[in-house]
Amino acid sequence: MRQYTTAAAAITDLHERGFTSDFQVCGTDLFWVQQKIFIRTAAFDVVEYHRLWNPAAQQQDMVLLGIIAIDYNIRGILFIDNATIASNYPPVISHKINELNQKVLYRNSI
């Protein structure tokens, strides 16, 4: 995975690689902001996971996720802010991040 030092650098790189849509978590679904469409859990995958740190505060500022929804032919970004991180990720996001980690572990064991 790529490493970023700022949120702006991460967003710029993801946009340049086609992650141009914005998402929000709504219960167990994602809400595609631009099209005002709800995307069910089975219709999207987390393909990138980036923790962005605030060096001055020595804490995690946010998590930036790269999302792909193949049925809709879109790539986008989901931000999870520090307040949400502190109170735990939404369960659907935790599940998707675990799936991504399993894929990475499998690839690295081959």
Gap between N and C termini? 17 Å
Q: Indicate the overall shape.
A: globular
The radius of gyration over CA amounts to: 14 Å
SSE string: HEEEEEEHH
**Assembly state of the chains shown:** single chain
Mean pLDDT: 82
> Approximately how much helix is present in the residues?
25-40%
Number of helices: 3
Uncertain runs: none
Strand content: 35-45%
Strand order of the largest sheet: 3-2-1-6-5-4
The number of strands is 6
Q: Main beta sheet, described?
A: 6 strands, mixed
Supply the helix-strand structural class: alpha+beta
Would you kindly provide a written description of the structure presented here, covering whatever features stand out?
It is built from three helices and six strands; from the N terminus they run αββββββαα. Strand 5 and strand 6 form a beta hairpin. The protein has a six-stranded mixed sheet with strand order 3-2-1-6-5-4, with helices on both faces.
Please supply descriptive tags for the structure shown above.
about 110 residues, single chain, about 30% helix, alpha+beta
Summarize the structure.
31% of the residues lie in helices and 38% in strands. It has 110 residues and is α+β, with helices and mostly antiparallel strands. It has a 6-stranded mixed β-sheet with strand order 3-2-1-6-5-4, with helices on both faces.
